[in-house]
Amino acid sequence: MRIALGIEYNGSEFRGWQTQPGGGTVQDSLETALTQIAGMPIGVVCAGRTDAGVHAIGQVVHFDAPVARPLTAWVRGANTFLPPAVAVHWAQPVSDDFHARFSATARHYRYLLLNRPQRPGIEHGRIGWYHHPLDIERMQQAATQIVGEHDFSAFRAAECQAKTPIRTIYAAQVRRYGELFIFDFEANAFLQHMVRNLVGSLVFIGQGKQSIDWMLELLATKNRRLAAPTFAADGLYLVGVRYDACWGIPGMKGSMAEMMPAWIGA
């Protein structure tokens, strides 16, 4: 039986999603816990591989269960064996042709940025930081320019292994809650470091270092070296993954404005 899981994790505690020699990744931890429940090795596939330090509150994975277990075993049982920084939210049987990555139609990433002279303390590791004042209206206008299908070569990591840099962004928003700036991006898929590179360039525009039309210029050049530096992983969250209703996967609930980690308090 193929099982889908919804999980969350604090990326500060891991070396990224994908398994590595020596362990220390989210995938390693999850597979170890599920193996304890099944009594035999389990391998999982995720909807979006996150880098070291990147968090998730709506990651989706699937695996093929070699033995029958109650769904509660894949949730409460697995959580018993997982480290504190990762937890399973739900488990659901799916058809054998469901694939956590290839069946997804959209992914939603959010970047949380603290904008004040002092670095974060209590939110350390869970939020990005920029000390110069930022203009929200300039960033909002610039964000609208990347919506649609584009070649995002200017915003991909040098080591990105994607076969094509073409991606379609369905929505891009920048909002402000006091000292907190919230960047939301929903797309069919993302390139490695793409969101963090988009945020970095939008911040340059917000500070006045570049014009509002700079995002369009970067898209046209397709040159990563001309864009802003990659922003820190701390503030990046995989918020949710969207699937067609036929799969019966719990969807990305609510609008972007409503999907807020509870600890923010806004």
Automatic annotation (TrEMBL):
Binding site for substrate: Y109
Active site residues of this protein: D51
InterPro entries, sorted: PsdUridine_synth_cat_dom_sf (IPR020103), PsdUridine_synth_TruA (IPR001406), PsdUridine_synth_TruA_a/b_dom (IPR020097), PsdUridine_synth_TruA_C (IPR020095), TruA/RsuA/RluB/E/F_N (IPR020094)
Residue ranges of domain Pseudouridine synthase I TruA alpha/beta in the record: 8-102, 142-244
Reported function: Formation of pseudouridine at positions 38, 39 and 40 in the anticodon stem and loop of transfer RNAs.
Molecular function GO terms recorded: tRNA pseudouridine(38-40) synthase activity
NCBIfam families: hisT_truA
Record-linked Gene3D superfamilies: Pseudouridine synthase I, catalytic domain, C-terminal subdomain (3.30.70.660), Pseudouridine synthase I, catalytic domain, N-terminal subdomain (3.30.70.580)
UniProt xrefs under CDD domains: PseudoU_synth_EcTruA
Enzyme Commission number(s) from the entry: 5.4.99.12
Keywords: Isomerase, tRNA processing
Family: Belongs to the tRNA pseudouridine synthase TruA family.
Catalytic activity: uridine(38/39/40) in tRNA = pseudouridine(38/39/40) in tRNA
Uppermost EC category: isomerase
Domain of life: Bacteria
Xref: Pfam families: PseudoU_synth_1
HAMAP family xrefs: TruA (MF_00171)
Identification of the protein by name: tRNA pseudouridine synthase A
Subunit: Homodimer.
